[in-house]
Amino acid sequence: MFQLGKTIVSEEIIENDFVCNLSACKGACCVDGEAGAPLEDKETEILVDIYSKVKPFLRPEGIAEIEKQGAFIRGEDGEWETPLVNGSECAYVIFDDKGITKCGLEEAYNQGATKWKKPVSCHLYPIRVREYSELTAVNYHKWEICDPACSLGNELKVPIYKFVKEALIRKFGKKWYSELEQIAIEHTNG
């Protein structure tokens, strides 16, 4: 671990490679698990505000759960998250004609219906961020369903921090990311 500003960062995001391989995993991270996508406080308001614009992009099952549970829920851990369909997939999930999971929020964004891409936790994955009173922890979340992504990342030689560059800049800013890149160069060459 190393400190970068007000963050504590795991070296694993520098040392491990990762590139999503949707043809292999089919987007399992959006349908497997026991909880919805983690949400920041401000994202809960965004989900409520954009729901009417996103709704046309969603599946009937997702719409039904959002209208029953709400645009977001408080999870068992007390944190905000997206609601689930059948206790499994995110309510905002859609599927393409090959059965690959996509994000309905991101599809609405891609089609110009909204200006918000998706929750930052989804954008950052496989990085998970945990806020503490003084610092923010930035860690690599290992999950066996992502083994194909690790293999593809290794083949393409793309470290996690480069794969999620846009999301890290979105969360922490360009200056923070530039400092992370410098630390990664020193760590790799050191």
Output mean pLDDT: 94
Instruction: Tell me, briefly, the overall form.
Output: globular
The quaternary organization reads as single chain
Poorly predicted segments:
none
Q: Count every helix, treating DSSP H or I runs of 4 or more residues as helices.
A: 10
The percent range for helix content is 40-55%
Which structural class do you get from the secondary structure elements? Answer: alpha+beta
Instruction: Tell me the β content.
Output: 15-25%
How widely separated are the two ends?
Answer: 15 Å
Largest sheet: 4 strands, mixed
How many DSSP-defined strands? 10
* CA gyration radius, whole angstroms: 17 Å
Describe this structure in words.
With 190 residues, the chain is an alpha+beta fold. 43% of the residues lie in helices and 16% in strands. The chain is built from ten helices and ten strands. A four-stranded mixed β-sheet has the order 1-2-10-9, covered by helices on one side. Strands 3-4 form a two-stranded antiparallel sheet. The relative contact order is 0.21.
